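Subject: mismatched residue count in predicted assembly?

I count 1167 residues in my input, but I want to confirm that the predicted structure covers every chain. Input:
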Amino acid sequence: MNNKKITTGFVLAAVSTVLAIVCTILYRSVAQQDSTTFTLLIFAAVAGAAALILALMLGKEIPNLFLIAHAILLMTAIGISIAPVVNDMGLVFSGLYQMDIIKAYITFAVCACIAWLFAVVASFLGVTGKKA
Amino acid sequence: MKAKKLGLKRGLAVVLASLFVLSLFASSIAHTWETKINTFLGTSSYETVKTGESTSDGIYFKSEFKTVKEVIDAKEALAREISQEGTVLFKNDGALPLNAETEKVTVWGLNALAPTFGGLIGSTTSVNYEAGQTTVTLLDALKENGVALNDTLLSLYSSSAADPYRRKAAFFGQEVPGHSLIPVFWPMFETADSYMIGEPPADFYTQDALDAAKDTTALVFLSRDSSEASDYAVSTMKDPNGDQFERPMALSANEKALIELAKANSNGKVIVVLNSDVTMEIAELKNDPAVSAIVWAGLPGAYGFRGVADVLTGAVNPSGHIADTYATSSISAPSMQNFGLFFFDVPEGTLDPANDKGNWYIVETEGIYVGYKYYETRYEDAVLGQGNADGTSGVFASAGNWDYASEVTYPFGYGKSYTTFEQVLESVDFNIGGESKATVKVTNTGDVAGKSVVQLYAQAPYIQGGVEKSAIQLVGFGKTAVLAPGASETVTVEFDAKYVASYDENAVKADGTQGAWILDAGDYYFAIGNGAHEAINNVLAAKLGSDEKLVKVTDDEVINADNAKKISIEAKDIETYSAGVRNHLQDGDIRKLLPERGVEYITRADWTKGWEPVWGISPNEAMLKNLHNQVFELTENGSGETWGAANGMRLIDMVLVDDNGNYQGSIALDDPLWDTLLENVTLEEAVAFMKGAGGNFEPINSIGLQVVAIYDGPVGFVSDQVPGYTANWTASDSDEPTYVGPDNEYANWHMPTMPTEPVVAATFNTELVEREGELFGEDSLWANASSLFGPGLNNHRATYCSRNHEYYSEDSMLTNIMGVAVCKGGKSKGLMMEPKHFAMNHQEANRSGTATFISEQGARETELRGFQGVLEGNYAQGVMTAFNRLGTVYSGAHRGLVTEILRNEWGYTGYVVTDMINGAEYMNWRDVTFAGGGGCLTENAYDSSIIGDPNSAENMKLIQKDTVFQQELKQMLKYDLYTFVNSNAMNGITGDTRVVRVHPWWETALTAVNWGTGILTLAACAWYVVSAFSKKEKK
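Triage response: the counts match. Full output below for your records.
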């Protein structure tokens, strides 16, 4: 374990995992919630955490598979979460609803997108590495 | 280097997989919004194809016009005619008509440049300027009529100096000139603190402008806005630009200054024009001798100001009569004491505003005493010294005790003419259970030709402390042709005696059921008059034998006891109009729900009662259950209905044609063939049809039902849903005679241009209104749009409801008659007209879920009577339920309302649809279906609701077990299909028509993206996996 290096990819994956946990919490305050989204966010956070732990324990490519799962689960959660709020978003953009009604969702969505971006960059870099 | 390459492959796989996921969800969302996307892009997901086996042309409803231009011209001409007859002359000391040849006119009022043509949202007046369509302001219309206008002041109004004062509401992301109210769709806990009047202060006017106005006739233009989803508030007292007023309906400081400037800088003639569908406080104008004339124009739509100008210039003699009481104080009606924001007194968290939408309510303590039925009834009691009518309760404009002349400025039904008419009530034939009529001889005794309205009112005998009765109520009316000076015409006014009856909640009929329409024994009076006040004065003069104690409020009122006829009934009748009738709305009466609360309603027995606002109601357990939307549950019962029988029957088989192939309507509703047809429908299709009536009724492929679209718009198809005549056509329809292709010069002209309903009501001319319905029907044929959410038939309960522009009047009988006329016209062209909002939708503030408490008598004699004629006679094909609750039960799921009264008492056979589902829990599909409601106006609101999408696997399992639910579903479907077959939605469909699902280009593009990203994802993943895990690569 001691010969494992903390890589940039590892750090980015860690940030992404933390953000996924934050997203899970943020999603609880969204007006139009969806249980599948919530479940996917939890799985994404677990996959991210698994990638990090395995990276520290195993190295090699297996942890990166969890990182891939983490990124795809995040994107799936974002995709599924949109449908219930499309109606509200349309009404806000047309001036019929106040922004407040989708503010919590926007915060969540921005956070989730940042988490996904970190995960994508981390997947390019990989979470594992060995000390020189 | 190797690690970098692997990272690249890994990252690429992640990016592509994410894009694939994203494209799948984009496709799913796009599919949900298919209708809107198709409307926006001008595409369609369905195509009708013919196999060539039928020889019929499939055109069952034909147009009377050859081109769409002819329809447009006819509508413009009719709009002008409606406004000519709907413009009301309140006051005239001879200043009107204008002499276009000799008079120069200065138009005062910034709002004249951007008047309010109609309301916002459902009845937005809309024209397509880019396509060459225009609106006509009063300024334009006066110029067209040859009136010389003073340009100096108009230039000042057009300058940038006036910009800060111009009205412009933010709506749909755009600034809308001529509007100040901003629609509010979310829960409101406070009322608006300001309203923009739109007039600049006195110091805005330059000396040049004032000098130029001298020696000209002043025409002062005053305006108030109207809008759906917004209400005026009594407490609003300021304008964001510094203008101030006592109440929004009162004249503001800047408006008063405007009038003073006009008086000081004119030739002595000051004419005030009111551009408002809400009743303003204008007593000071009436009483000001320096104000020469007052004209009510209402909100006349895109072209109606031409009619107003015709009246002002004398091209047409005014014959309009106001459809609402112009009270001196706009808050003096009993209904205004309980209007606005009232909240249940419950511990925090008991009710969830977002889901339950059950935190707010109103109590309609006025009962039957709405509008003139309050003012005139109290007046009679004050004259007769009954029930403390002349006391101090409910005094708003009187000094001391209540005094009619102080409280009412212009009574309901009042209107002047440039000539004088003598009306003589010659006979009244009152037949209980038969046809009733009155004959009135009308003579033009003046020197100008014109039309005259005959208004027939009735008074039923009131027994002190008994069933509440209005001292006077409109039962019918008629209008003469243009009468030359000296000419006469005898007008026959037919009326139905059932509308003279009162609803007695305590009456027990021979069959033992409780609740009946009663006609008490005693003296009935039938009277005519220029408005309700003159009519009741005629009744009182006949009763008292003298007019000594009687009060006149207008200078041309004539009291004539001979114009009131007495007819006596010896025995009380509680059966004739009560077949199948019994109490169904007792759960809407707060006195019955919470007797311990001791809420008092307005009563003739004692006019001191019922004036208190009813604050802080604490709902009991049963009420709370309803407010939590737990009305009906799905259970396991019965053995299920037959669905998906595949017996080969199709909807077109229900169309009847004669030997020559001419359309004859449909097979009768009670024919068993309907049941055979319905067995063909699958349960999934039926459920999808019920839950997705937003924008479109879903197609039912198993019986060949194509998409039937439903559109908003009491003044014409609303332009954001039908953005032009060509919008709903596809090239495959080009062989239809009313097809409008995209290359047609008028392809993109908008349709909602007609005058608003209060203007239409003020015509008191059913021929014009029926013609309006016919032209809505012509729009329907030429725009390929078969249904219209209109007319609005709610009562003008309170003038501060800013949606009154969508409803005709404060009077339910005038509403009833106008509704019948317009729907008759629409039906003749196969248009499905859908009155709204059934029922008790009396305010827009917190309209979603508002628990509306009202007595059953009040509900039946005011609001429901307005709907009764059109639904009982099946002149309307659809009806939209309201946003509010009746009592604590959502109106669209109130079985007493939508099944017992609507279906069983009235025999209505059209369809029912909810208002827009903007509260998926309280407007839930389960309650709506069980109660006998209909389609739910949404596309996807239930997807994220607690109760869930009815088509979900979980809910379908429950529905499959519930036979009662399935039966209700089938019954609802039967009404819908029966209605469609009787409409022009069948145009173009023949025995060999098949509806085919097609993929518009955007759907194909999305599918291509799905496949593309999917294949790339697979490739990238394979590349990555091989690189990362194959032994060869590792080596």
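Chain B has 27 helices and 36 strands. Marking this ticket as 'not a bug'.
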